[in-house]
Structure formats: structure tokens, C-alpha cells
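FAQ

Q: What does a record look like?
A: Structure on top, sequence underneath. For example:
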């Protein structure tokens, strides 16, 4: 019962953060499953969290689509090439030593925290569209960034929104709001691709995934409600959360180094 309660609580925290600041919370899923819930295998934690990441992204995508924040043609190309990258990345991740994977995951969390601190709005080009006329200019960067973002997303079992958003902006010069909405197409696709690859190898705990997702849905509801009441303090909330991600990343990295070098961390 304690393990189940911790799983629901961990999912609630991830969903709450996603609802509150619109991203970043999914990177906490793997550390929470490993260090709080007590999942022994980092690979099972990654496979299980990938499902929750994908479903959370899908729910957010529906909201952004209703608000017309999605550039479907650009998002579709980015996601299609990224799925191939996610499959390759997740295949490599499954074969990678679990503790070394966690060490790299900790380092990635620190990078994410730095990105969240440095992220700023961008006016961009609201009218950008992928057409026959613009294909020669937009397709190469969209496919290149998509493949790279997908590989990293699949390897670490994360949504990868922090990679996809700047990738879309760099490839097309679309505004950040459109990039955030459009990125969810890729995050959803990457998450389901990674989850399917891990599930094929029996590296998904379905009962755990159900509890985690249930918690995430409840947490997301309350996070979204609080987000509306704190709309003027989003930047402050983002910076606070970046600090939390950095702290967890440092802990995961330090723990990984100690374990890999033969130390004892109790």
C-alpha cells in the first residue's frame, strides 16, 4: 500500500508541475519512480514513465489545438522524423547500463534547469507555414532537429519538450507559444514510441503506470487551476522549479558517480 500511495503521489507531483508551468515536470518522473517509489530497474522506470509523459502531452495538445497554437505541417514533419530518432534512441537506451543511464540523466536534468532559467519569449514569425514554396527552406532544419530531439528523448525516456521547442523555433522562426503547442505533437509521438519499444522488451510496469497516470491527471487538474490564479508569476514559478530540477539533477549525478565508482551511498 505504501508503494502504491507513493506512486500516486509522485504522479500527482509531475501532473501538478505540468499543469502549473506547462512543462518540465515529466523530467522528474524517472527519479521519482527510482528514488521515491523504489523501482529497482532504471529501464522499467523509463519505460513506465514514458507512457505517463505521452498521455500528459496528448491532454495538453488537445488544449493547445483548441486555442489554435499548433502549426500542424511543421509539427508533423518534426514529429515524423523524430519518431525514427526516438525508436533508435530508446533501443540504445535499453542496452545501456542502468546506473550509467541514470548518471547521464542527472546531467541532462542540470542542462534542462539551465535552459529553463535562460528561456525567454520570442516574437518570431506568427505566419510561418510549411508549403511547397517554403519546403526547400524549412524541411532540412525540421528533419535534422527532429531526428536529434527524438534520439535524445528516446534514449532518456523523457518528453523532450525542452529540446523540441527551441528546435522548432530555430528551424522555422515560429513564436514560442506556437512552438510550445506544436512541440506537443512530437512529445506525444516520442513518448508512445519509447513506451512501445520498452513494452516490447517487457520493461513497463503496467499497474504502476496506471497509478502514476491517475495521480498525474489529478495533479494536472489542480496545477492548471492554480496556474490561472498565479498567471502573473509564471516566470518566478519557472525559476523556482528550475532550481528544484537542478538540485535533483545534482543528487542523481552524485549518486550515480558514487555507485559507478564502487562507493556506498546509504
Amino acid at each position: 500500500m505504501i508503494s502504491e500511495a507513493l506512486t500516486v503521489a509522485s504522479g500527482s507531483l509531475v501532473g501538478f508541475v505540468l499543469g502549473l508551468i506547462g512543462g518540465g515536470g515529466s523530467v522528474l518522473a524517472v527519479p521519482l519512480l527510482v528514488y521515491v517509489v523504489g523501482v529497482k530497474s532504471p529501464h522499467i522506470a523509463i519505460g513506465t514513465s514514458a507512457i505517463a509523459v505521452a498521455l500528459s502531452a496528448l491532454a495538453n495538445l488537445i488544449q493547445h489545438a483548441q486555442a489554435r497554437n499548433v502549426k500542424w505541417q511543421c509539427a508533423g514533419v518534426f514529429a515524423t522524423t523524430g519518431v525514427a530518432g526516438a525508436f533508435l534512441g530508446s533501443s540504445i537506451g535499453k542496452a545501456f547500463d542502468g546506473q550509467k543511464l541514470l548518471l547521464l540523466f542527472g546531467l541532462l536534468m542540470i542542462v534542462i534547469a539551465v535552459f529553463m532559467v535562460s528561456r525567454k519569449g520570442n516574437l518570431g514569425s506568427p505566419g510561418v507555414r510549411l508549403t511547397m514554396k517554403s519546403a526547400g527552406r524549412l524541411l532540412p532544419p525540421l528533419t535534422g532537429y527532429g531526428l536529434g530531439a527524438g534520439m535524445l528523448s528516446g534514449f532518456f525516456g523523457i518528453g523532450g519538450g525542452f529540446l523540441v521547442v527551441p528546435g522548432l523555433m530555430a528551424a522555422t522562426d515560429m513564436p514560442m507559444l506556437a512552438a510550445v503547442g506544436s512541440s506537443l505533437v512530437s512529445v506525444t509521438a516520442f513518448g508512445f514510441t519509447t513506451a512501445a519499444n520498452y513494452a516490447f522488451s517487457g520493461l513497463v510496469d503496467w499497474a504502476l503506470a496506471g497509478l502514476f497516470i491517475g495521480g498525474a491527471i489529478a495533479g494536472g487538474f489542480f496545477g492548471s487551476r492554480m496556474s490561472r490564479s498565479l498567471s502573473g508569476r509564471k516566470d518566478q514559478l519557472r525559476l523556482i522549479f528550475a532550481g528544484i530540477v537542478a538540485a535533483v539533477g545534482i543528487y542523481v549525478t552524485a549518486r550515480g558517480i558514487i555507485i559507478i565508482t564502487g562507493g556506498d551511498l546509504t
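Q: Is there anything notable about this one?
A: The longest helix spans residues 234-260.
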